[in-house]
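Q: Hi! First time doing this. I have a protein sequence and I read that you can turn it into a structure. Is that right? Here it is:
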Amino acid sequence: MSDFWFNGVSAEEMGLRIERYPIIHKPRKRLTPVTIPGRNGNLHISDGSYEDIVIRYECWWKNKSSAYSTGRTAHEIAQWLYTAPVGARLEDTYDSTVFRTATFQGPLDIENILDRYGRVTLEFQCRPEAWLKKAETALTFTQSGGFLNNPTPFATRPLIHVVGAISGGLRIGDNMLTLIFPGMEAHDIWIDCEEQEAWEIVDGVEVSSNSYIGGADYITIQPGRNDVTFPNSFELVEIWTRAYTI
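A: Yes, that's right. Below is the predicted 3D structure, encoded as structure tokens:
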């Protein structure tokens, strides 16, 4: 049966049925037009980014029992959607290999049919990436000299976990991330290369470790094979590639 999940809850759990296959949306490139005097048309400059997309599901439902009105069911559906955080997970059975980062903004315009049924089109504002589910598993390295593969033509900014005691450089492909640890004690550091933030968990509390990052360069994983090297002082390196397609 066709279904979708938003913020960990399925449409089927809420009594919703999808009427038809949703339209497959692909994002627009962000382009800046530049007019050059004496030249026909515009020159378009791309910064390599994409605009958000909107994913829509056309749904209907039958109320659970005669004790339910369409309005009561609508309240339950609204509570599910409006209480979800910004940037929740959205996935469906139409392409089960990916998921999206989505936000429900509203409004909800519900058709009430004889107070027994309801119809609604649900719209989700989504980031342009279709994240690969197979990239949700960390790649673990306990010694230098391995490699990872980015199977898509899109460069990614990974999440990295490093355990080590002595400063050194982590190289992934052509990118080098230098970690400068104070003292000689072991450190357990997380680096989000997309958000450009680093932190440690100390006594259950997240503590900023941005000062451990040497320079301003964060790792970008390029398409294809990327060799992974690091000093012997790093006991463990885990990498979530965050590979995606469009």
